[in-house]
Specification:
The protein contains 2 helices and 18 strands. It is mostly beta strands and 214 residues long. The chain has 2 domains: 98 residues, Immunoglobulins (Immunoglobulin-like), CATH 2.60.40; 100 residues, Immunoglobulin-like (Sandwich), CATH 2.60.40.10. The strands form 5 sheets. Strands 3, 4, 6, 7 and 8 form a 5-stranded antiparallel sheet that branches. Strands 13, 14, 16, 17 and 18 form a 5-stranded antiparallel sheet that branches. A hairpin with a 2-residue loop joins strand 6 and strand 7.
Length: 214
């Protein structure tokens, strides 16, 4: 029995954490500390905070992977959720390892916008597209993150002659198409953008750079 107890403890999953980007939400965990724990199978349950019964996540029941997609199960974005994972090896089950409380609306990370740039000889036109959530409209298109938060686009210009980190904010607002004027022909400019949420004072990462020679 003691050996079983040791095995139970040594295969118990560690660091059970939610990761979420634009409401695409996955649960991640590490294997137990025993070397043989790498061969364990895992079982995932979840519930809304305050509910008494745990739900099995069928697609993550007896899996060898250490990631479980809970996007669909956490789609009520204002609700707080918990999840828990247990491991099994050689007929022995570990205790459950509990995640921290996770509230999608507060904790999802907002990704950067997509940008496309075009130009005339003295101006650059930037088209911005907000990141999309996994949730769909009736017609099937994915709902943008701007539907869930009051988000602003921030557009920065990097003049290549200067240092890469020297980004100048040229626009902040909700317009999806902006024009940057009075630029110098023959100069190469790079544009990056990010999403900004004033209410929580959060910013996304920067978008990919788009560079253009006027």
């Amino acid at each position: 029995v003691l050996e079983n107890q040791d095995l139970q403890d040594s295969i118990k999953p560690q660091k059970v954490e939610f990761h979420s980007l634009n409401f695409n939400t996955t649960l991640h965990w590490q294997p137990g500390w025993a070397r043989e724990a790498r061969d364990a199978l895992y079982f995932v349950q979840y519930k809304v905070y305050g509910q008494s019964t745990w739900q099995n996540k069928e697609e993550c029941w007896g899996i060898s992977s250490r990631v479980c997609d809970l996007t669909h199960e956490t789609s009520d974005i204002q609700e707080p959720y918990y999840s828990r994972v247990r491991a099994a090896l050689a007929g022995v089950y570990s205790d459950w390892s509990l995640s921290c409380r996770f509230t999608p609306w507060r904790e999802t990370v907002i990704g950067p916008p997509m940008i496309t740039v075009s130009h005339s000889n003295k101006s650059i036109t930037v088209k911005l597209q907000a990141p999309r959530s996994p949730y769909k409209r009736k017609r099937g298109s994915k709902i943008p993150m701007t539907n869930f938060y009051d988000l602003l686009y921030q557009v920065f210009i990097i003049n290549n002659l200067l240092d890469e980190q020297h980004r100048v904010l040229v626009y902040e607002g909700k317009d999806k198409v902006i024009e940057i004027q009075d630029l110098r022909p023959g100069v190469s400019y790079c544009i990056v953008a990010k999403m900004y949420m004033p209410m929580l004072d959060h910013s996304s990462a920067y978008s990919n750079r788009q560079c253009i020679l006027l």
